[in-house]
Amino acid sequence: MALPEKIHLEIVTPESHLFSGDVDSVTVPANTGYLGILPGHAPLLAELGIGEIEYTLDGKVEYLFCSWGFIEVLPERVVILAQAAEAGSDIDIKRAEEAKTRAEKILASASVDIDFDRAQLALIRAIYRLDAAKHKAAHR
Amino acid sequence: MANIRDIRRRITSAKNIQQITRAMKFVSAARLRKAQDRVIAARPYARQMVAVLNSLASRVPEQAHPLLATRGDDRIELVVITADRGLCGAYNTNIIRQALDFLVKNSDKQVGLNILGKRGRDFFRRRAYAVRNEAIGVLAQPTFADAAAIARDLIEVFTKGEKDQIWLVYNEFKSVVQQRVIMEPILPIQRLENPDDTARLDYLYDEPPAEIFANLLPRHVEAQIFRALLEAAASEQGARMAAMEAATNNAGEMIEGLTLHANKVRQAGITKELIEVVSGAVSTE
Q1: In this complex, do A46 and B205 lie within 8 Å of one another by their Cβ atoms?
Q2: Contact B202, B55 (CB under 8 A)
Q3: How far is A51 from chain B (nearest CA, A)?
Q4: How do residues A38-48 score in pLDDT, each as one tens digit?
C-alpha cells in the first residue's frame, strides 16, 4: 500500500483552534523526547512536555511553542491537544525575555524560600518560547 | 385630572431609563459576540478530548483511577455558576431555582455548595446552607487558568474523599434568546461509552497507557469546567441583551401611552379655557 503524502494535522488548545491543515511532517516534544511524525505513521498516543512543535506546510517550516498536552496519531489525522500553545510569530519576545531574566534571577538567588520547581519551569518555558520565536524569525 | 407637569416628568424619566437600557443592550451585544467566539473556539478541544478519552477508555482495563471511583452519593458538592450582576432576566433565578430543587430532592444527603458569581453568593449567604467555597468575578472573562484552578480544587476535594459526587449547574448557551439550565455530574467521571472506530486501532504508546489515561482525566475535568464557564458567560450576555431589549421596548410603550395622555390633558385644559372665555364673552353681551 502506498503511503499517503500528507497528514491532516489539528492543533487545538482550550482557548483556540490553532491550526488545521494537511502537512508534510510534524515534530512534537513528547515526554520521552522529540517525536517526528511522517505521513503513514502508526497510531500513537503520547504525552507532550514543554517544547517546540514543528510542522512543514508546503515545504515551509512553522514553529509553535507548546506547554503540556497530548498527541494522538490516527491513520487519517494527527491531533495535538495542547494545554497552551502559541505560534512562533505570535510570541511576545520582550515578555519572554523578561520572564527568562526573572526566572534566572530567582534561581540564582539560591535562598531557601523560593519555589524552585516553579521558577525552573518558568525558565524552561521562557527559553522554548524564545526558541520558537527565533526559529520562526530565522525562517522568514 | 392629572397634572400635566407630573406626566411630563414621568415621560422624561421613562426616556432616561430607556436610554440606559438601550446602552446596556448594545454593550451586552458586543460582549456576547466575543463570548460566543470563545465558546466556539473552545469546542474543538473539548470534543477531541472526549474522543481521545473514549478510545483510551476501551483499551485501558477497568482500573481504579481515583477520579473514576464511585462511592455512592452521601456527600455531594454542587457547583453553582451564577452571574456577578443582575438585570439579565431570569438568568440567575433559573439557576438558583434548580439548585434549590436539587437541595430539596437530596435533603436526606449532605449537600455542600460551591458558588461562583455574586448573585448566587448573595442569595445563599442569606440562607442557612453549607457553602464550602465561593468565588466572584470569574464569569466576566473566564480564562483557562481560572477553570484549571477550580478543577484542581474539586479534584483535590474528591480524591481526598471529602465528597462522593460533584455536580455542576449552569446555563448552557443555546442561542441568543435561549438558555438552558444544565445540571450534570462531573465527578466521578462518568463511564465513557460508545467508543468509535478509532477504539479498535492498535496504538503505539510512548508511555504506559494507564499513565497517559491517568494524566488525561484531570485535563478532561478542566476542559469540562472551562466549557461550562464559557457557556455560562455567553448565556449571561445573551440573557442580559434580551432583558434589556424587552425593557427598552416597554419603556417605549410607556412613553407612547404617557405622551397620548399628556396631550389629552393639554387639550382638555385648552377646551376648558375656551369655554370660560366664550361664556365670559356671552355674559358681557
Answers
A1: yes
A2: no
A3: 17
A4: 988 888 888 89
